[in-house]
Design brief:
Rossmann fold; Tumour Suppressor Smad4; about 375 residues; 11-stranded antiparallel β-sheet; 11 helices
């Protein structure tokens, strides 16, 4: 009996001990759970406050619009919708003015730390924005809205679909291209150009082309102005290449460029490469209307480098001096008259957004979702 009671007693004691241990474990577990929950809540609050202080980075674009070329409000709305769809932050939208053709706006965009600056306008707007971005790591996108759209043509952008151009600006491939730098006075300011700069006949045509005709006829307006400028007096020039080789000649026009594709697929500088670190300088020297026919035939045939009354030379720097003042143009924009024009190349100084391989396939198929 005592033995049985002893066993029962030990069983009861053991049960009590087990219950005590189990209670302690459960109590500790509850305390631990509460501690974990409290710590979790602290971590969540910390994460939330950190997120508020440092929001997750989203890409952001700046859109610089020339309001004389399009409905700026509509374009801004389209860009905002595409950015939202693509997961980008709302774009920084700026407009050019009479006082600022885009360079100051692009500088302000850089100060905001945007990931890409999009120039929406003609060649003048593109050149101004490029002036601010040259030498930086921020790429330039282009929405071509002008008459010539020369840089856009030379890097194979979409010319007639704004939505596609915006998507290329957001997700295209970065390509480094050369930029030209020009001066029209020996101690004057420097100006960048992305396609070509010249003096003489070509600049006179640009200066004499009617804005009204450009609106109505597009690039054909230049043909009308050019036909009126064919007859003219050649200019006597001295041309110095790379501070070494010099020539004197009587010419109608001298152009220097990084690339040379014009409207209609015409190659004015057929040997020019946009990222070879060299300028292509074209000298045009017809003496009469009959010789102009030879010039036109050479250009249309893609043989302007060594054509009839045309020749070209590659260099890194060129200085052109004339006896009398002649018209000068930068990327198709008249900039006045001068007896001096210096140009040099800045190799790979500008990053531009161009279509990726996949984007090119979609463009060719005409099936890019927008």
């Amino acid at each position: 009996m005592n033995f049985e009671l002893g066993i029962v007693g030990w069983l009861i004691v053991g049960a009590v001990l087990v219950l005590a241990l189990l209670s302690s474990f459960l109590l500790g577990a509850r305390v631990g759970a509460r501690r974990i929950q409290r710590r979790s809540r602290e971590l969540v609050r910390t994460a939330e406050s950190t997120a508020e202080a440092n929001p997750t980075h989203r890409y952001r674009a700046a859109l610089i619009i020339n309001p004389t070329k399009t409905d700026a409000g509509q374009l801004a709305s389209t860009a905002e919708a595409i950015c939202r769809y693509e997961g980008w932050a709302p774009p920084l939208v700026l407009e050019t003015t009479i006082e600022d053709s885009g360079r100051a706006a692009a500088t302000a965009a850089l100060d905001e730390g945007v990931d890409v600056v999009i120039a929406a306008g003609g060649d003048g707007t593109v050149r101004a924005v490029a002036g601010a971005l040259t030498g930086t790591s921020t790429p330039m996108g282009i929405v071509p809205l002008g008459t010539g759209n020369l840089l856009a043509r030379n890097i194979d952008l979409v010319l007639d679909k704004t939505e596609w151009a915006l998507r290329i600006a957001l997700w295209g491939r970065n390509r480094s291209i050369d930029v030209g730098q020009a001066q029209i006075a020996e101690d004057g300011d420097t100006h960048v150009f992305t396609v070509m700069t010249g003096l003489g006949f070509d600049a006179a045509v640009m200066a004499d082309t009617s804005s009204e005709l450009k609106t109505k006829l597009g690039w054909l307006a230049y043909v009308e102005a050019g036909s009126r400028k064919l007859v003219g007096k050649p200019s006597h020039v001295k041309i110095t290449f790379d501070d070494d080789y010099r020539i004197s000649a009587r010419v109608r026009s001298v152009l220097g460029g990084n690339c040379g594709r014009l409207q209609g697929g015409i190659q004015l500088l057929p040997d020019a490469v946009i990222d070879d670190g060299l300028l292509d300088v074209l000298i045009v020297s017809p003496k009469n209307l009959g010789q102009w026919v030879g010039v036109v035939a050479s250009v249309i045939g893609g043989k302007a480098s060594k054509g009839l009354h045309t020749e070209s030379r590659k260099c890194q720097k060129v200085v052109i001096e004339t006896h009398e003042e002649v018209d000068v143009q930068f990327d198709g924009d008249p900039v006045g008259r001068s007896t001096y024009l210096a140009m040099q190349v800045l190799p790979s100084a500008l990053r531009v957004r161009v279509p990726t391989t996949e984007q090119r396939k979609q463009i060719r198929a005409g099936a890019w979702p927008v």
